[in-house]
Design goal:
604 residues, alpha+beta, DNA ligase i, domain 1, D-amino Acid Aminotransferase, Chain A, domain 1, OB fold (Dihydrolipoamide Acetyltransferase, E2P), 3 domains, eight-stranded mixed beta sheet, six-stranded mixed beta sheet, 20 helices, globular, binds adenosine-5'-triphosphate
């Protein structure tokens, strides 16, 4: 397939804001594509070459890309730099520069014989070489290869290639849209959940696309959990009291301590290899080599996938330490020292696979039993503390013991026959209850930064407040819920610009839905934990707009940053709009007057 066909499809995707229409455009394109190329095409639509858990990432700095563009178009370097500062998009820069050359006829871009003949295969091959380039001259090699691609490209192709290598491919082809498109192209709407299940247990959208194109729904149904391919994690709902939680579970449930650490999914292979994935699919094995080794030694299965929470432990007392301590294990440098200085334990709470058996379809009690008997527990490898609870009083006592053991709260887990492991879903089979709930009305929120406001007074010259959004997976949009200006210490304020990066935009990103206009916009990437006093109807915020009241969305009042950057969460794993709606439903609504802007501007 020609890359120009794919680039034209990107144009069509960019020209619509409707997810339905995007899915139809993609479905039509997927149907016409060569089956053997579909996997690569799907990755390219998302600006990638591999599934998300693949260790290396395609990436060139703006500086390198600009250099390649300048060399390929014989443009003036200063001018190219200015164009980039103005637009912030190397894709636009290359289009402008190629267009200029054509006008002045200095360089017959569109007349070059190979223009528009780049195949998808050529592009994948060259981008793969860029990704692999290493060693002393790696930067020069990358420039050379990229320049080669640009020289063979039409301006439109060059636009998307430049965006792709700089991590700016945002044509709207998110996972959910691609799954919709695959269902439309190769199956039926009713079969869509089964396609999504295949994605949730493999986290590989390209594999799912290739499987359905080549083998149809029968092959999709055969896709199961496999060692090495991370599974989307199961998540918990929340309720405001222990008694409601026991009631919701039908009067009887398992309760486990809720440990405050880092969730890992451990893939233990037959060959002795262990890989630890974070919930955003990063490889955490280098951060917890001791845990990986202990799991292998203590695992009685030849191969298994388990989940647990890694928690820092006081070296002398053995007490669990706060979350901040275990984050020392997440840094990029000085890992040897961190491993030595920060002892950890893994508290295992689930098993997804063991010796050829997909355990995700077993009910919780059977999984728990298999996990307990599948390991020689001890040392760094422990089970979560668990108790079968049959009354609210029992539950309260268990909660009190969890808090005195320095845990965050409890997780109630259903014992029902249908209490399977639901990959990638948040539901009432697991319900969390945290000690914070006793002070505040609701759980903390994990919100995404979509914009920033320049500070005033003491904060002059820095960002003073942030525009925060929740995620709406249905629409694929980040919808605002508050302006956040409280809870930042000086160190955080000083580092805020660095944390948010320089991917600033003058216009609202396509994936954001906001009415409040910040001084600068950000592509949604950074997730911050926020606590708040309450959720209210808001005329200015866009989350759940018109859902509860015509003309109103939901905003959160008196938001405060807790100090925790949720770098273990991708923006799509932030608190969803649906969750906020449910949390709103759990509050009493005496105070539901419309506040002028969610009530939080005062907080700055
Ligand atoms: P939170 O911010 O409350 O941890 P979350 O969005 O990260 O929430 P939830 O599914 O809401 O995830 O809460 C469950 C999280 O709690 C898991 O992701 C896991 O990291 C952690 N956890 C700690 N102890 C347990 C346990 N016993 N069983 C399951 N998860 C546990």
């Amino acid at each position: 397939m020609l890359y120009s066909d794919l680039a034209s499809t990107f144009d069509r995707l960019e020209s619509t804001g409707s997810r339905l229409e995007m899915a139809s455009i993609l479905a039509e394109f997927f149907r016409g594509a060569d089956k053997s190329e579909l996997r690569d095409i799907v990755y390219l639509c998302q600006g990638k070459l591999h599934p998300d858990f693949y260790p290396s990432v395609l990436g060139m700095s703006d500086k390198l890309v600009l250099k390649a563009i300048v060399e390929a178009t014989f443009a003036d370097e200063k001018k190219a730099e200015q164009l980039l500062i103005k637009s912030g998009d190397p894709g636009e820069v290359v289009v402008t520069l190629m267009g200029k050359k054509k006008q002045t006829n200095l360089f017959a871009f569109d007349a070059a014989p190979e223009k528009g003949e780049l195949s998808v295969g050529d592009v994948v091959k060259s981008l793969g070489q860029i990704e692999k380039a290493s060693g002393k001259r790696s930067q020069d090699k990358k420039i050379e290869i990229f320049k080669g691609l640009i020289t063979k490209s039409t301006p439109n192709e060059a636009k998307y290639l430049s965006r792709m290598v700089t991590g700016r491919m945002r044509v709207g082809a998110g996972d959910m849209t691609i799954l919709d498109a695959l269902a439309e192209a190769f199956a039926t709407k009713e079969e869509r959940p089964e396609i999504e299940r295949a994605f949730n247990v493999t986290c590989d959208i390209g594999l799912v696309a290739q499987t359905i194109a080549e083998g149809g729904m029968d092959s999709i149904r055969e896709i199961g959990v496999r060692v090495g391919s991370p599974v989307k994690v199961m998540l918990a709902e929340r309720l405001p009291s222990v008694s409601e939680l026991v009631e919701k579970m039908g009067g009887k449930c398992a309760m486990e301590y809720k440990y405050d650490g880092i969730r890992v999914q451990a893939h233990i292979s037959r060959d002795g290899n262990v890989k630890l994935f974070s919930r955003r699919l990063e490889d955490l094995t280098p951060n917890f080599p001791d845990i990986a080794q202990s799991l292998r030694t203590r695992c009685n299965f030849a191969e298994a996938i388990i989940e647990g929470e890694c928690v820092a432990i006081h070296p002398e007392t053995g007490f669990m330490l706060p979350f901040q301590t275990v984050t020392h294990r997440r840094k990029k440098h000085g890992m040897d020292e961190a491993v030595r200085d920060v002892p950890v334990r893994i508290f295992m709470f689930d098993i997804l696979y063991a010796d050829g058996n997909d355990m995700t379809s077993l009910p919780y009690p059977e999984r728990r039993k298999a996990l307990e008997s599948g390991f020689s527990l001890g040392g760094m490898v422990q089970m979560t503390t668990m108790k079968i609870v049959e009354s609210p009083e029992d539950g309260e006592r268990f909660f009190a013991s969890a808090v005195s053991a320095r845990c965050e709260g409890i997780m109630a887990k259903s014992l029902a026959p249908e209490s399977v492991y639901r990959a990638g879903s948040r539901g009432f089979l697991w319900i969390k209850y945290k000690k914070d709930y006793q002070q505040a009305l609701t759980d903390s929120f994990d919100l995404v930064v979509v914009g920033a406001f320049y500070g005033m007074g003491k904060r002059a010259g820095k960002y003073g407040a942030l525009l925060m959004a929740a995620f709406d997976p249905e629409e694929g949009l980040f919808e605002t819920v508050c302006k956040l200006g409280t809870g930042f210490d000086d160190e955080f304020l000083d580092g805020m610009a660095g944390l948010l990066g320089d991917d600033i935009s003058e216009t609202m990103p396509r994936s954001v839905d906001a009415e409040m206009v910040p001084d600068v916009w950000f592509e949604p990437t950074v997730v911050l934990e926020v606590v708040a006093a309450e959720i209210t109807l808001s005329p200015i915020h866009t989350a759940a707009r018109d859902l509860i009241k015509e003309g109103s969305g939901l905003g959160i009042r008196f938001p405060r940053f807790t100090g925790r950057v949720r770098d273990d969460k991708a923006p799509e794993q932030a608190t969803t709009v649906d969750e906020i709606v449910r949390m709103y439903g759990m509050q009493s609504h005496d105070s539901d007057g419309l506040s002028s802007e969610g009530g939080n501007a005062r907080e700055e």
